Amino acid sequence: MVFSLFAKELRLIFQDKSMYFWMLALPIVFIVIFSTIFSGADAENGNAVGQIVPGYTVMFMFFIMISIVQHFLRDRDSGMLARLSSTSIRPVPFMLGMWLPHIVVLLIQSAVLLGFGRAVYGLSLGNIASVIMIVLALAICATGLGLVLAMLSRSLNAAIAIVQIVTFGGAVLGGLWFPFSSLPEGVQAVGQFTPQRWALQALQAAMLEQAGLQAAEVWQAVLLLFMIGAAAAGAAILLYRRFAEKSFRT
After folding, report:
1. Average of pLDDT values for 40-46?
2. What stretches pass through the bilayer (predicted)?
């Protein structure tokens, strides 16, 4: 069940042409534009590219939440969830089958964006194993939050508005656009509680291979991001039955 649903969802995601724009084309355009604008400027940790590429990679990973909401609302409004409720299929396998494809998409997206930064701008990827762990943990976090949002959403338009707040608000507070140290103290105080801040800080430490700092920051970020994602996914499972009941009313 999980594998068949996984394969179906992954195929549907790749058939959605808008995904290529939001997840790949647009972030690459942003990276090129801002890398050109700040080509002579040094960022806090190395250079402008070391701020811009991982910063926009982290930011655009959260757009996957729109796809997750869209797919769940599609199944709810089409009556599919009502039909599933009459079978032996349990909520957890169904949620896994819907969740895992989006994690795969984020892993591909981050590989393309960071690879682009490496190939075009010579971005140092530093400790590859650490970078992979951070990206995986962030993918679990972003998609887990997407699951909760899907369970609570009444419409796609409302969900898109929330995703924009989370994405752009987190980008500002988390220092994805500008070095975190250049932000006002009040913004920094709030930004410390955003997953975007933890992810970027850990990525920069891993890429710069700051030996004394790297291990602590990487493991703290990985653990925190994983815990957020797992807690969000758990909450989504608890909310699933109420969400599925709405399928009977459509």
Report:
1. 47
2. 20-41, 53-73, 94-116, 128-152, 159-180, 218-240
Residue 219, exposed/middle/buried by CB under 10 A (0-12, 13-18, 19+)?
middle
| Rounded alpha-carbon distances, angstroms, from residue 172 to 59, 99, 161, 188, 220 | 10, 27, 16, 10, 21
The tally of CA atoms less than 13 A away on the side-chain side of residue 241 is 3
Q: How far is CA 24 from CA 43, 102, 108, 229, 247, in A?
A: 24, 14, 10, 23, 33
- Burial of residue 89 (CB within 10 Å: 0-12, 13-18, 19+) is middle
3-state secondary structure of 42: coil
Q: How far is residue 64's CA from residue 86's CA, in Å, rounded to a whole number?
A: 30
What are the extents of the domains in the chain? 2-249
E strand map for the chain: none
Which residue in 177, 170, 240 sits closest to 198, CA to CA?
Answer: 170
How buried is residue 142: exposed, middle or buried, by Cβ count under 10 Å (0-12/13-18/19+)? buried
Whether the CB-CB separation of 59 and 164 falls below 8 Å is answered with: no
Q: Are 186 and 99 in contact (CB under 8 A)?
A: no
- Please give the model's pTM, rounded to 2 decimal places: 0.91
The crossing angle, in degrees rounded to 10, of helices 211-245 and 91-121 is 140
**pLDDT for the residue numbered 45:** 38
Instruction: Determine contact, residues 221/141, Cβ cutoff 8 Å.
Output: no
Q: Any idea which residue has 């299929």 for tokens?
A: 89
CB of 207 closer than 8 Å to CB of 131: yes
Q: Cα separation of 250 and 247, whole Å?
A: 5
